[in-house]
Amino acid sequence: MNDNFWIIDSEKKALKYTENIYTIMNEQVEYLKNSTNGKVFAVFGEITTDGSLINIAKSMSEVFRNAKYMSMVEEKVGDITTSKLIDISSAYQERRMGFEICTNNYRYRLFELKMTPVYPVIIVVDEDIICNIGDKIDLFYESEEKNTIIINDEDEFCAILKRILQAPKVIYLVKELMERVEIEVNSSKQSHDKIVICEGRTDAIILQAIAKKLGREISIIPADGKGYIPNIYKKMKDESSVLIVVDSDGDEKLTRQMFSEQIGAANYKIAIINNRIEDWFAPKLDGFSKLEILQKVSNWLKRLILMNYQRSINLLLRLLIL
Hints:
By secondary structure, the protein is an alpha/beta fold. 44% of the residues lie in helices and 18% in strands. The strands form three sheets. A six-stranded antiparallel sheet has the order 1-4-5-6-8-7.
């Protein structure tokens, strides 16, 4: 009689399970997030492929499988009807995992991991990283592929992972991603924070032309009247720094007092024009087209550079420092 070839007792042949890889990777995901204050984050998950042809193939496969079960012919192994039992082979199927570092706009895949529930696992690493760490992985079993490493246990996996995350290319890209996020955040703040509330639509056209000439990105909201400005400001003051541009209507002190009483000394700046902003360009602009107004503004700005007109300079400086 032959020996029992089954290994049921785990002590006879201890299996090296890969389930702890998920914990290890999720820890590194959290470390990166905390180390970069959330500017750069990592993702570890199964790689899936979406596409019309692939979806059709999957659907057809499902149809054929169902048709098989619905047919009059049933497959049996001995006395067991296979269609009546759940096939558990998928419990051991190979999974293709990916590990990437990302921002909201950029991504970079460090490696792919082909794994089953037990070791060994296969890791396919970015070729540049392999060049960075090639002299440090001599102790590990490599396949014939230059960028593919066969890993036999958890200690080897952690050792390889550490070398990958500390590779010069990875260090450089994390730093580069952080800098790009910082630039995007600052750019977003500048465009979002530069909000100007003015009295009318003609004022808005003029101010937008001034900002464009100065290379500034601002958002201008016409209130259709000085009296409506406080209500508009109250709805947005928690979101942005605001510049309020109004006409004095002949009394700068009274205008300033009105805004002080209605909205207080909150997070806004105010530029009061004596008497109307339109008066800077012509006695009357009410009948002018938008193009004519813009032409007036352009010509005025050219003269302003030469004349050092202090009253106008003050407003422009406010726009610049907002």
